[in-house]
Amino acid sequence: MIFFHFVYRDSIIHRLDPRFKVAAMIGFGISTMVLDSIIDNFFEFGALFITLMFIHYIAKLPIKSILKEMKFFYIMIPLIIFLSSFNFASNPSLFLNHIDIDGLVLGSTFSAKLILFAFVSTLFIETTSIREITYSLEWFFRPIPFIKETDLALMINLTLTQIPLIFDIFSQVRIAQKSRCNDYQKNPIKKLVTLIIPVFSKILKNVDELEFAYQARCFTGEKTKYEFKATFSDWLFLFLFLIICALILFI
């Protein structure tokens, strides 16, 4: 499983300064948020998606495997669109009187933004190691007064570390149940319960072990500050990426 895991490749995207990746991700997020409707901005949504796919290709990431492992999005996105279609009652659809067009457009727009955010965050995680993410976050938080940047960066680091572990635990429990012929439940609720209990048990056990490991090593978070060195390729990547996002939005 590679979804939300760091995937090492010898690519220019992997070698970029992580601070510039964070800045590019923030610029991409702003570009996505300012888009109003998927009907009015269909070209913009498509162009941003193609840009991300192109960067995935440059980074030499297995796009097919990533799309295959994002199965939960294929269930969640139609559910979001269907449920949001009941939010308004001003413009009923021609097909069903209880589903209206405004809600359908709103749900589709939200789902498109969610997919873009999922892809850009996945791209960032898979091309940047946890160590680089921690150092870059410390660098961004350092100028903020009354905030201990090491502690804040550590909390985000632990969160990002646990997310792929949760996916791994879920996959391991599911495979273990299938190998023991325990995957016969037809009721989806009972099937979900049989998965949730062992998954949460393993997650809590991992959290306890991690806490004991930090305490045993007398971890305080104090360490030598990492010094970054930006190169011309870093500035060029950030400039070109932000220019592309600006052109997509304003042309």
**How do the helices and strands follow one another from N- to C-terminus?**
HHHHHHHHHH
Quaternary structure classification: single chain
Distance between the termini: 39 Å
Question: Total helix count?
Answer: 10
Mean pLDDT over all positions: 80
DSSP helix fraction: over 70%
Please count the beta strands (DSSP E, at least 2 residues each). 0
Give the biggest beta sheet.
Answer: none
Describe this structure in words.
With about 250 residues, the protein is mainly α. It has two domains: about 1-140 and about 230-250, no CATH class; about 150-225, no CATH class. It has ten helices and no strands. It has helices spanning about 10-15, 20-35, 40-60, 65-70, 70-85, 100-125, 130-140, 150-180, 190-215, 230-250. It is globular, with a radius of gyration of 21 Å.
Features:
single chain; about 250 residues; mainly alpha; 2 domains; 10 helices; about 0% strand; globular
Quick recap of the structure?
With 251 residues, this protein is an all-alpha fold. The chain is built from ten helices and no strands.
